[in-house]
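User: Hi! Is it possible to get a structure for several chains at once, not just one? Here's what I have:
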Amino acid sequence: MTTATVEDGPLRPGALLRVEDVVVEFPAPGGRVVHAVSGVSFDVLEGETLGLVGESGSGKTSIGRAVMQLPPPRSGRVLLDGVDLTTLGRRQVRAVRPRLQMVFQDPLSSLNPRRSVRGVVGEPMRVWNRSRPDIDARVDELLSAVGLDPAAVGDRRPSQFSGGQCQRISIARALVLEPQVLVCDEAVSSLDVSVRAQILNLLLDLRERYRPTMLFIAHDLSVVRHISDRVAVMYLGKLCEIGPAASVFGGPAHPYTAALLESVPVPDPSVRPSDEEVLDGEPPSPVDPPSGCRFRTRCPRAQPRCAEEEPIMRAVAPEQFVACHFPLTAGAPRP
Amino acid sequence: MTAQSAPVLEMHELRTWFATPEGPLRAVDGVSLGVEPGRCLGVVGESGSGKTVLLRSIVGLLPRRAIASTGGTVCFEGLELAGAPPAVIRDVRGRRIGMVFQDPMTSLNPVMRVGTQLTDGMRHHLGVGRQEARRRARALLEAVGIPDPERRLRDYPHQLSGGMRQRVTIAIALACDPSLLLADEPTTALDVTVQSQILRLLGRLRRQRNMAVILVTHDMGVVAGSTDDLAVMYAGKVVEQGPTATVFSATRHPYTRALLEAIPRADARPGERLATIPGQPPSLVDPPSGCRFAPRCPRAADRCRAEEPPLAGADGHRFACWFPLGDPEPPAAAT
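Assistant: Yes, the chains can be modeled jointly so their relative placement is included. Here is the combined structure:
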C-alpha cells in the first residue's frame, strides 16, 4: 500500500507534535487484520488546536491513542519536540507521559469511584513524587480553574457529581502535570447541549490560561469548528483533508468533507434538507478497505482512476491539503 | 402542510411519577400534546426532562412496579389508552402504533432472523399467513431502502451495519401499517451521514403513508429539519410548543432560547464563548415552587418563584412563562 510521503504532506517544520505515516492495526477473527489507521501524517504547532473529525471506524480514536503510545502504533513515527516516542523504551515513555495527557469521553468511568476528587486530581502528581504541599496547592488551583470549589468538592467522590462536573474533574486531572499536549477524545460528546457549552467554554478559557497544544477528537462538526484552529478529516483509516478550520469548513475540497458538512442537521427550520440523499451507503469494513481511494465506493465523483491509484495529499489552497484526484475546487480537473 | 385534521393522538395532563425512596419523582408532570395525521411532532429536551418517559407512557412501556402514580388521558383514534387494560394496549402497540428506539442493536432480538422479527407482528396482529407475511416483509425492506431484501430476511441483526439495523427496526415498526410512529432518538447512535439518510427516510415514509410521527430528540438540528411542530420539555413539563418554525424564529421561553444559544454556530468568531445556562436541572422529587426553570432563568422575578406559569398563548404557539421573551423585562429582574 502506498502512502503519502512526508514531503508530499502538510507537515511543517518546528511543530511540537508530529505524526508521520502512522499505521495502527488490530487482529480480527480468522487471522484477518483491521486496518484502523493506514499511514496518517499531520502535525500540531505549539499552542495550536487540531480538530480530528470522522465517523465511527474512521480511526480517529486509534490515532489519539497512538499519539499517547497506548499502544504504540504498528509503524510510523510520533515525534514530540523532535523525539520519536515510538523508539523509546517503556521507562523512557513513562518519563514522557506527563507531557501528554488525555481526557476521555465517559467522564464517570474514567474516574476512580473510590477516590475523593482531591485524590483523583492529585494522583498524577503523587505518581511523580511531588511534595504534599505542592500537590495540595496545585490541586486547589486546578479545581478552581475548572470552576469547582476545592473546599466544597475536594473530599467528595465522583459518583456524587453530574456528568459535566465529572468532565471538569477529568480536565483538572489532565492538566495537573502541566502537559504540553492534551488529547481530548470525544470529551464533550456524552454531555447535554447546555453542559456541553459550559465545558467548551471551559476548554477555551483553559487554553488561554495554560496554552496546551490540543488534539481535539470528535464526531460533532459544529463543536470541532468552534474550538479548532486547524481541522483534519478522517475516513476509514486515512486522512482526507487537513487545513485551517475556516478553509475546510468554508470551502471543503474533499467530496467526503463536503458530504459530512451537508449531513449535519442545521438548527434552523428555514433551511429544510433536500429530499436528495447526500451520501449513499455506509463506510465499508476496515478489515477489507477498498483499493485506491477508500472513499470511492460512496463518492459521487469517483472515476476508474480512483480505484487504481491512491490519491496523495496535495495542496489545494494555502495550508489546505486534500487527498483526492478530483477535489472540489475551482480550476481542479472535473471527472 | 395541509389544514389541521382531527388529531391521531391527544394527551391531556399526562402524568407519570416514579416511586423512589425519597418520594415520588415527577418524570412527566402534566403534559398536554397532540399530533395530526401526516405531521411530525418533535419533543426536545435534555436528559431527565421526561421526553422518553412521555413517549413510553403513551404505550404503557414502563415497568409497572416503578410507577408511583399516573394521571391524565391519552386518546388515540378515539380509544382511551391511559389506564386501559394491558390487553387493549398490547393490541394497539405494534399494530396501530409503531415504535423505533435509539439503539437498533438492543431493540432487535440477536438470535432471531430479520425475517422472523419482521413477520412476527403481522402474523400476530393481522393474522396474515406465512407466505403473505414474507411477501410483505420483502416489500417493507425495499421501502426502507435495503438492497437485496430476500437475502437480508435470512440475516441475523449482527450481520447488518448500524444504519441497516435501524432501517430494519423502522420496517418492523411499519409492518402493520400504523397510523402513529413513536421514534425515540432514532438517529442518536448513528453517524451523521447515516443519520441524514434515516431522517429523510422517516420523512418520506410519513408523507407516503400519511402517518403521524412523534420524534423525541435532544438535537435542535434534527428537530429543525424534520418536524412540523415542536414541544420543548424541561423538568417534566412542556415549557414551549408550537409550529417548529415559529418556536425557532419567535422564541418566547427563556429556556428554549438558552438551548438554541448553547449550540456552536457556524458564523461564530473563533474562540467565541457560548451562552450557557447556569446551574443544573432541579430535582424532580422536590421541584422548585413556581416555574421550574426560575432558579436558572436570567429573567426570573418573585412571581416566577411563587406561582407556576400556565402554558398559554395564541395561534398554536404556547409557552409557560410569566415574562416571555419579546415582552418587557420583569420589574426588578434581580436574582
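Chain B touches chain A through 48 residues (CB under 8 Å). Residues 192-209 of chain B form the longest helix (18 residues).

User: Great, thank you!
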